[in-house]
Amino acid sequence: MSLASHFRSRPFEHLLIAPVLNAPLEAGLISELQDAEWESRGDTFYRFDVPRLDLTKARIRAMLDTVCSDIKPTLEIALTSRLAPAAHLEIHRYRTGDGIGPHTDAATAEVRCVININTGWSLADGGVWTLAADSALKVGTSQLPSTSNSAFAFSTGSTSFHALSLRYAGIGYGLTIRFPRQ
Q1: Contact 176, 89 (CB under 8 A)
Q2: How far apart are CA 100 and CA 23, in angstroms?
């Protein structure tokens, strides 16, 4: 599948991608995610659910293997980073009241690609991604909708702040593919 992408340099270099998945894969992922067993995770600045079973994580990872292989060269070129061959996957479910506060993940040298999956997102649902060059989310702020089958990718760094606003309704999923930089 050919990836349609758009590079933006502000508030930090990032790539917008849509669609990321073909329709059968998106439908299969939604089914797998809806059928999964979940457990809550939370701390002072985040709240979401993660899959309870390693088997669920392995199935979703296997479903995304081709996507990871296909997207890696695009990310390397757009974000001028040489990436390790193996990618890691984080899977989150966002329900009412869930979200993630501003952070950078600067301590981990990698490129992250966050794929939004849901069955129909609207602005009233909340769960809007915010990118900024500062922790107060004031410098160069950009907001990204959580539209299903869309993604954004960026290199972690000291000015790559990102956050997910509180979810007000519905359920959304975030699949974060993490490529270590070499």
Answers
A1: yes
A2: 28
Question: pLDDT tens per residue, the chain (182 residues)?
Answer: 567 899 999 999 999 999 999 999 999 999 999 999 999 999 999 999 999 999 999 999 999 999 999 999 999 999 999 999 889 999 999 999 999 999 999 999 999 999 999 999 999 999 999 999 999 999 999 999 999 999 999 999 999 999 999 999 999 999 999 999 99
Both tokens of 103, joined, read 């952070």
What is the DSSP secondary structure assignment for residue 15, as one 8-state letter? E
Do residues 179 and 111 lie in contact, with contact meaning Cβ atoms separated by under 8 Å?
Answer: yes
**Site of tokens 């899959």:** 51
In sequence order, the 6+-apart residues with CB closer than 8 A to the CB of 111 are 75, 79, 81, 83, 153, 154, 155, 156, 178, 179, 181
CATH architecture for segment(s) 9-180? Sandwich (2.60)
Contact between residue 155 and residue 59 where contact means Cβ atoms under 8 Å apart: no
Structure token digits, residue 26:
């998106």
Does the pTM surpass 0.70? The reply is yes
- H or E element in which residue 76 lies: helix 54-78
